[in-house]
């Protein structure tokens, strides 16, 4: 790893608030007005915004940049985060489904990060996997609007699952902030 002076200069596209990713009128997460009504709608809104934030942090980067790891010995990269969250979505779906669990997407532990290599096919597959797994978990939960309902063999409450999903994306969006800054210096929430 290089010296601090070898790091890219920090920058943002935002001109209104320098700590933001983009200006409010350009931010697709910006929902002027009231928050959604109700606990379920609020949780779904937070989840949608964190998912969108992760996609935004990955936009405009080539496969090498997406696969770039920031701090050895960590294997974390933006591409690895996409793959990891696809795997996690599948795990959540397995928690609530009846029957045998679906197999792991990428294999053994840490294969989601270890296999995040700088190839366009891997990037394309990661995006497709994440979109598919998010949709599958969303569809499985759509039939369960009662947040107190317990699902799956372990009796996980819908509320707990939704909160855990928001937490997981929020945590990894924090990682994505730092990873993106290491790649090209772009900062912002």
Automatic annotation (TrEMBL):
What is the protein name stated in its UniProt record? Answer: Mini-circle uncharacterized 19.1 kDa protein
Q: Where are the transmembrane segments?
A: none
**To which species is this protein native?**
Actinacidiphila cocklensis
The segments labelled Disordered in the record are: 1-39
UniProt cross-references to InterPro entries, sorted A to Z: DinB/YfiT-like, MST-like
Database matches in Pfam families? MST
